[in-house]
Amino acid sequence: MTSLQGYVKASYDELVEVFGEPSFQCSWDLQVGDGKVETEWELTEDDTPVTIYDWKEYDNGSRSRSGTPYRWHIGGTSREAVTIVSNRLNKVAHYA
């Protein structure tokens, strides 16, 4: 289980380029959980759990997946999760 550690501003496409397809995407015909998260990546790096997710948009991911920069939530068990996400994104030339 992770909790909010910080934020990162990036487009959905940039996150897909760096982290691959999301672990979870909600759609109107598939309501899972409480609907507070509609797009989420779950990964572990250096034994550190990391989640990247949208939060309480309630729009089926329209805003977060629009292709424009979005303020994603970063979850983890420590602030190291934010460092991991930032470092991986900074390796992408057009992100920095």
Your description of this structure?
The protein has helices at 12-19, 80-90; strands at residues 3-10, 24-25, 39-45, 48-53, 70-76. It has a five-stranded antiparallel β-sheet with strand order 1-5-4-3-2, covered by helices on one side. It is globular and about 35 Å long. With 96 residues, the protein is an alpha+beta fold. The mean pLDDT is 88.
Based on the model shown, name its key terms.
five-stranded antiparallel β-sheet, alpha+beta, 2 helices, 31% strand, 96 residues, single chain
What is the chains' assembly state?
single chain
Inertia-based shape: globular
Helix content: 10-25%
Over all CA atoms, what is the radius of gyration? 13 Å
Number of H/I helices: 2
Reading the helices and strands in chain order gives EHEEEEH
Low-confidence stretches: none
N-to-C CA distance: 30 Å
Brief account:
It is built from two helices and five strands; from the N terminus they run βαββββα. With 96 residues, it is of the alpha+beta class.
Blueprint of the fold:
Elements: E1 3-10, H1 12-19, E2 24-25, E3 39-45, E4 48-53, E5 70-76, H2 80-90
Antiparallel strand pairs: 1-5, 2-3, 3-4, 4-5
